[in-house]
Amino acid sequence: EEKARASYEQKLKNVQHSVSKKLLEIALAKKSNLIASADVTTTQELLALAEKVGPHIVALKTHIDIITDFEYEKTIIPLKELSAKHQFLLMEDRKFADIGNTQELQFKSGVFKITDWADFVTSQVIGGFESLDCFNNVGVVAIVGMSSKGTLTTSSYREEALKITLSHPNVIGGVSQSPIPEEILLFTPGVNLADSGDGKGQQYNTPEYVFKTLHSDFIIVGRGIYKSNNPEEAAISYKNEGWNAYIKSLKI
Ligand code: 5IU
């Protein structure tokens, strides 16, 4: 069952998409496979978190529609500056789930104008292959499997979702709690060192488990970092745990 995983260097040689390359380059440069999920609700908290954890992460994952006081100029412009200053990418976890035309409007219009600032976005693939065509200026992380209790992403759903994930040129990887083919990147949320769940259906694993068993490429950590008394220290500890677990998983 246990087999050595592909290294970031090996993946870097094989990936085609520019966003996949950037993520792997940042991972190697920072010795980090950590994506911080910034599930905070004000611009001030978002920017403060980005400033603190920025140096230690490969990407900051946002839910931009939960920011109460969102203003493009006050929220996005400084966030972009922090991403350049600390060298991390912006991952908007929008989880698009509609027909292509509607997803395109949600991606390009409204107040958020995700197309103008996100480096990569998450999308369901339930709308079929062509629903992903509109994301041709960013990378897409396809939702293959969810971390929550009772999710409908059964093995037969995941198998079909993977067909789209592997064949669409805009897709750089998948979110899943199961292993996926090595040619794309695996992003795994539901990672926490202190808790096993949140009482609302979330289920947590450790970095050790996700690298060893799933051969994940990137761990996504939300409350483990932003709810911590010291988010910077927490980010450093998830970064180190994640990196050590990755190194170990190379040697199995
Ligand atoms: N997220 C999950 N599980 C999933 C998918 C997305 O937790 O299967 I798809 C998101 C939700 C939240 C973050 O933004 O990842 C995890 O946050 P916590 O570490 O606070 O649970």
From TrEMBL:
What residues form the catalytic site here? D93 (for ompdecase activity), K95 (for ompdecase activity), D98 (for ompdecase activity)
Q: What class of enzyme is it?
A: transferase
Please tell me where substrate binds in this chain.
Answer: D39, K61, S147, Q202, G222, R223
Annotated GO biological process: 'de novo' pyrimidine nucleobase biosynthetic process; 'de novo' UMP biosynthetic process
Catalysed reactions, as listed in the record: orotidine 5'-phosphate + diphosphate = orotate + 5-phospho-alpha-D-ribose 1-diphosphate
Q: Name one GO molecular function term.
A: magnesium ion binding
Q: What does this protein do?
A: Catalyzes the transfer of a ribosyl phosphate group from 5-phosphoribose 1-diphosphate to orotate, leading to the formation of orotidine monophosphate (OMP).
Oligomeric form and interacting partners: Homodimer.
Protein name in the entry: Orotate phosphoribosyltransferase
Q: Which organism is it from?
A: Chryseobacterium potabilaquae
Placed within the complete protein, the shown segment runs: 203 to 454 of 459
